[in-house]
Write a structure and sequence with these properties.
Elements (H helix, E strand, L loop, with lengths): L1 H20 L8 E5 L5 H10 L3 E4 L2 H9 L8 E3 L5 H7 L5 E5 L2 H14 L3 E7 L15 H9 L4 E8 L7 H21 L4 E7 L6 H7 L3 E4 L1 H4 L3
Helix pairs in contact: 1-2, 1-8
Length: 229
Amino acid sequence: MIYIEENVKRIRGVIAEAAISSGRAPGDITLVAAAKTKPAEMIRAAIAAGVDATGENRVQEMMEKNALGAYSGAPLHFIGHLQSNKAARIVGLCDLIESVSSPALLSLIGKTAVSLGITQNILIEVNIGEEPQKSGILPGQTDEILELASQTDGVCVLGLMSVPPIYENNDKNCYYFDAIFQLFVDINEKKYDNVTMKFLSMGMSDSYEAAIRAGSNMVRIGSAIFGAR
């Protein structure tokens, strides 16, 4: 699947330019291949082409493809909306759960991880645009959930994830990118126990360059790697 290799190479070039323009090295940016609906052979091709991790949106789909060895050779992230009744199934299976969107979900993941004798790395999902149709903690609720995380065994918060609103007007896009980055910086300065602002996961196929320029260091890219669904 040469086109996947070519797409990853092209994306790496864009990432490099955006990273350098924002004062960072290209290697500072984690490229996650968003593999929703993509078969195991395409995921293997993306890993062979050099993506840093693979991300899945659906628990059942992830488990089915994992059984086929689809993710061998790269870390596995869960990046979709995670329902509480399915959360226990992926604790320990994922290297990083990016979409922890409520205190109840955080507590459930922690309890499951403790029962397995592990620590589960997570990101807190922030609904930076406060859109009612999207999951995620509202910006004003981040202190509350991070206080809880600092007291919850079995989890380690490594940063934030967000899916900001996307507009045709670039200024509006940049407003939300800048807002989540500022929240990321503010949290880092507060130094909660059990919380490290290592990753800001923000930016997808149609927005990753602008997101990196605004401070993102983890991008989740699907169609630009694999083609349209």
